[in-house]
Amino acid sequence: MHRTQLCGPALAVVALLVGPVTPAVAGDRPFSFSHEFSSGRPHDARLTIPSRPSIDHVLVDAYRGKTDDGPGTVIQNRGIAASPFGPAGGVGPGGLGNYQVTAHRTAHGGIFRHTPSLHRGQPVYVDAGRWRYVYRIIKTRWVSFRSAKALRAQRAPVPGRPGVEPRHAYITISTCATPEDHARGNYWTDRFGNPEHRIDKIGVLVDRVPRPGPPR
To answer: Which of 2, 59, 63, 192 could be disulfide-bonded to 73 (CB atoms 3.0-4.6 Å)?
Structure first.
């Protein structure tokens, strides 16, 4: 997401950029959705994605703001993940609505380098307080930073559906599409170094279990 970052090989999903952003996430219901919500209070957390290669207990720093703004970029530049909350952000871990988590893909450690390859049904664990919130990936969305409409959809309580009241707890795992943009000759960035497009993996809460190990 930083303008000086190195790019990896482009993925086959480049072709998706020519089509519309995937819309709703609420239509497909292949899992038993949990209603063991948290209060939605902002909370620092630890993120684990057990797919190979795995992401293990990455710190997610909660801050007041919106996805990939200035403060969020500073957090990501520390090699950890950022989670905005407040009027322009999302809810806390396990909360009813959209828990938003962003991190770098190719710069500053690139902890989200493999998240664009997450598949439908793969688990994501978020540890906060005494609980582990278990999400399952259900959708992929592409977001354009040059489109206010696309950003509203990304940040909506039901990802992709602004104005819809949430009935489930969602997670949006977001990282840059720099390799794909550069492969198409698109080198646009905003003032924080974000490229035009982002790849979001949307998950839904399917379980809440006691957190392994001591609370943090």
So the answer is: 192
> What tens digit of pLDDT does each residue of 146-188 get?
999 999 999 999 999 999 999 999 999 999 999 999 999 999 9
Residue with tokens 């290669």: 53
Strand partners, 197: 144
Is 9 part of a structural domain of the chain?
A: no
Are 203 and 171 contacting, i.e. CB atoms less than 8 angstroms apart?
Answer: yes
Judge whether 216 lies within some domain: no
**Stated length of the chain:** 216
Q: Please give the structure tokens belonging to residue 5.
A: 């970052």
80-114: per-residue pLDDT in tens? Answer: 999 999 998 999 999 999 999 999 999 999 999 99
Domain CATH for 112: 2.40.260.10
Which positions ≥6 away from 53 have C-beta within 8 Å?
114
Give the residues across from 60 on adjacent strands. Answer: 45, 81
Question: 10: pLDDT confidence band, cut at 50, 70 and 90?
Answer: very low
Q: What is the pTM of this model?
A: 0.84
Q: How many domains does the chain have?
A: 1
Q: What pLDDT does 30 receive?
A: 55
Q: Do 131 and 138 touch, CB atoms closer than 8 A? A: no
- Give residue 41's identity as a one-letter amino acid code: R
Q: Which domain holds residue 167?
A: 38-210
